[in-house]
Write a structure and sequence with these properties.
Blueprint (H helix, E strand, L loop, with lengths): L1 H15 L12 H5 L5 H19 L5 H16 L2 H15 L3 H9 L5 H24 L2 H25 L20 H12 L7 H26 L4 H23 L1
Helix pairs in contact: 3-4, 3-8, 3-9, 4-7, 5-6, 5-7, 5-11, 7-11, 8-9, 8-10, 8-11, 10-11
């Protein structure tokens, strides 16, 4: 059982990041079918990478530069996987009228004006929020905030898998292996890893941050259902990015 769960975790790590995994893990569709439960745990790892780089950089450079380096580290760790999903979602929903048009634009690997603007504004807003947080929070609290932001936002994306229908028919779609409804046990595991880091943060700050994440996730889910009838892999990436930003905004409401 431990080996099987380890395979599921490493499958999630390999799918959602560019971090190395052991060679013995192998590849199978069964692994990916159960990998979503560990999506938030992958977020814990990515958040820890970003926080560590930021805190080390703070010893050498001003806070804005340190935050940029930390953000760059998370982008390198994930290969901008979720940012790409955000851009594709914005391009598709901004440029398409029908469900078919939206899905076709989302699948196009080229980035359009809507997507470029969306990524630019999202990264700018994330930078501004983190630069403010790192300026006022003690180092351990900022570390916990980054880890929690990445973990909870990925749990937000998992709730779309659990609650919505996957709408692409082509088997080559990048999220097809994950497009299965999660059982209650699997969702509980995702919730554990997604919400546990919040215990390291002040309760008042976390309450507002989680409320904002819940609101953003609900609005995103309703919007995707209205536009395309469910979700795609790009929708998961978009939800993760918006939820992460909402989490930092929620913390900033209390910290300032």
């Amino acid at each position: 059982m431990i080996r099987r769960e380890s395979e599921y975790f490493f499958a999630a790590l390999r799918f959602f990041t560019r971090l190395p995994v052991p060679a013995w893990v192998g590849h199978s569709s069964e692994q990916l079918n159960h990998a979503a439960r560990y999506f938030p745990l992958v977020g814990v790892i990515v958040g820890a990478v970003g926080a560590a780089v930021t805190l080390v950089a703070l010893q050498l450079w001003p806070a804005p530069l340190a935050v940029i380096l930390g953000m760059a580290a998370t982008l390198l760790a994930t290969g901008a996987f979720h940012e790409d999903g955000l851009a594709d979602s914005i391009d598709g929903c901004g440029g398409g009228w029908t469900k078919e048009q939206v899905l076709a634009i989302m699948k196009d690997s080229r980035i359009g004006s809507y997507g470029a603007i969306g990524i630019g504004l999202t990264l700018l807003a994330k930078f501004a929020a983190l630069a403010q947080l790192v300026a006022v929070l003690p180092a351990p609290t900022f570390l916990a905030a980054l880890i929690a932001g990445h973990a909870t936002s990925r749990f937000a994306a998992v709730t779309l898998i659990a609650g919505l229908d996957y709408v692409r028919e082509d088997a080559s779609a990048k999220a097809k292996p994950l497009a299965t409804r999660l059982g209650k046990g699997e969702l509980a595991v995702a919730a554990l890893f997604g919400l546990a880091p919040c215990l390291l943060l002040p309760a008042a700050s976390v309450a507002i941050a989680l409320a904002l994440i819940g609101l953003v996730t609900l609005l995103a889910a309703r919007y995707f259902v209205r536009r395309i009838g469910g979700y795609t892999g790009d929708c998961l990436g978009a939800t993760q990015q918006l939820a992460e930003l909402a989490f930092y905004f929620g913390l900033a409401c209390v910290c300032f």
